């Protein structure tokens, strides 16, 4: 068959790829701010021991425990790579277009890849509760699912602006046994302070991160689990890119352009990092494009040390940032509304290896492109993933103008079955 490429369940990667040793410049270490207690020293109270070890590991390959590979198989990995033959025909482009199908996920997105690994380690380390943030709701659902399978309880702080329009996702998280709070919430000091200033505060990922961290910091039975930004999260996500590499080899295709949306960087990193490693080692020449929103174009921000959360509980990370108190208007692709880009991707951006495009706050162009994708390929992208589809289509249309037969590969990080209201509101049907 010409349009689907897959590997067998036994070929689910056995190791994650860690790009740190291959980076063109060393990755700057987390730092403490000038004032207050040491955030760096407090990290073991907040994050899982195994994840912290992985965060700073200099090993190129890190074993995926057999128990995690089994969970990956249970969650439907490996996920196929498709050639978008109908889309190519519709666009009339000479480009060859492929997409990875992270939408085939029990909860709807790539986020399960790290959720399963983190829940697995949490059980090994004797925890019973995990706390976390969520923006689009995809990460909160993924962690709720992983916790329910592992016999753990999750406490989810969900950006209020999204919590209020995704009733199905809220019900799903509760069905999986999680406690879910609209953030800012009355559960934490940070949340109560913001609610006192504005009872209708729309929230942000940075605020939700602070609330999840505060709960973990104050209760020794709770450990925090992050869905993006940090190295260990992107490391767990490299199964996406490693599978894609095998599948492209089976398709006898070499990517010229790789595209994915970027909020904090977990799906972009997981998809692109194994290929970025090849570029760093001089083994490939690929253009990488991160699709973002102009409400949160963090890759166009400053490259400097900044906190990863609103209340400054995290250490300072060197990253492209808009500032941890930046206000960002709500959009339907709300998972892209985060102030900073993963430090490891920031190093690669700084080295000139990652391009970016920021789409307008009015999401009509992006969602019209998603409509073209769904009408030709049949899969409904999550609003965030619509940015990947839009960018891939825009690149394919550039090829149509120039006549170049480029190979464009993109990642559909999730499905939009629970986000239809967003499409309806923007497209007006
Ligand atoms: C489906 C989906 N894709 C992408 C993102 C953006 O996050 P990240 O950049 O960590 O992949 C999110 C965030 O919630 C998401 O739900």
Descriptive overview:
- The protein is an alpha/beta fold and 429 residues long.
- The chain has 2 domains: 232 residues, Rossmann fold, CATH 3.40.50; 153 residues, Rossmann fold.
- 41% of the residues lie in helices and 17% in strands.
- The protein contains 16 helices and 15 strands.
- A 7-stranded mixed beta sheet has the order 1-4-5-15-10-11-14, sandwiched between helices. It has a 4-stranded parallel beta sheet with strand order 8-7-6-9, with helices on both faces.
- Helix 2 packs across helix 11, helix 5 runs parallel beside helix 6 and helix 11 crosses helix 12.
- The mean pLDDT is 97.
- The site of pyridoxal-5'-phosphate has 21 residues, from helix 6, helix 12 and helix 15.
- The site of pyridoxal-5'-phosphate (PLP) has 21 residues, from helix 6, helix 12 and helix 15.
